[in-house]
């Protein structure tokens, strides 16, 4: 139920123009990117439209000096010393307490957004090398939901024939030493050499999924370095403080009152001042980074669970057979032992990993009704064009109809272009 609800929000194709992945991917490369971009706009507005810093200057400072002080303290790094502590005289201690992030918060949000978008960019740039337009297939399948019965049948039949042409075009028609070596390599380097072995799309998609996982973990380390704090535990500290005190107070990680050192040169006389400044922008930064911590954790959990689910579905071969048989059973196509044996060949040797993957993506972006019809058409095309029992006319047998006893004994089904042993 929750997956379906969130999946519906994830189909915001107006932002991407494509629907060739699942809703967890869109949670990363659409919703998170939009959120981070919005954060960048909010903080930029506070910096460039409002007054991001105010400084308490000595009485002798004129208006020009006050403006100069504010500008110097904004572009240089202020530092935070709690009120109960004395201001250290050692410059090294002051440097260690510097806040070096507040000027660059909009930029870091945009960099984060770019990092969340890059795996999707790689997926769109390279999945076309599989020889099939996954985006067009899923779009056509999605369009059939509201189409008339005639148009719906026509589009699904077109998709089935298109997939059949793609499957047959990207198949090895000979078998030699080099083909065997490439097949072994394709088990390891799926999307590098697995186009004709039916593993390119599945391998590349798992690679992209892994990129999303690496990115979400890297985001925490990036913010650790950027904020110069242990950001990994920030959300835990917030929850612990709220549970202990019942209310939230300003965090020392995002201080609103800081100190600033500046030097003013008058001829050969160099005067040094320490002024106290207020950073209203940290009021926004603190809330945004608290929300971002919980959002990153939420996305990380879902992304890793989703990645594990895809690995399980793709790695274990029996899952392909089970997936296809589920829809054939709904259609009442598996009534005999012959049908069950042929359905295994249909999944493992005809569709293979990439074909089943395309069906899974179609199902995630349309509905089970559309996917059921598509499987039915592919099954029909497979049996009509690639699978028929020998008959008297071709001299290969005498039974025009499937004989379950012969099939169970391991006979060969005569095919057009391929022999699928059952």
From TrEMBL:
> Mind telling me which residue stretches traverse the membrane in this protein?
30-49, 204-223, 288-312
| Highest taxon listed in the record's lineage | Eukaryota
The record's PROSITE patterns line, in alphabetical order, gives: PANNEXIN
Which terms in the GO cellular component ontology are assigned? gap junction; plasma membrane
Task: Enumerate the InterPro entries for this protein.
Answer: Innexin (IPR000990)
Keywords in UniProt for this one?
Cell membrane, Ion channel, Ion transport, Membrane, Transmembrane, Transmembrane helix, Transport
Chain segments carrying region Disordered: 392-422
- Subcellular location per the Swiss-Prot or TrEMBL entry: Cell membrane
One Gene Ontology biological process: monoatomic ion transmembrane transport
Q: Which Pfam families match?
A: Innexin
The way it spans or sits in the membrane comes to: Multi-pass membrane protein
Its annotated function is as follows:
Structural component of the gap junctions.
Regarding protein family, the annotation reads: Belongs to the pannexin family.
Q: What is this protein called?
A: Innexin
The record lists the lineage as: Eukaryota, Metazoa, Spiralia, Lophotrochozoa, Mollusca
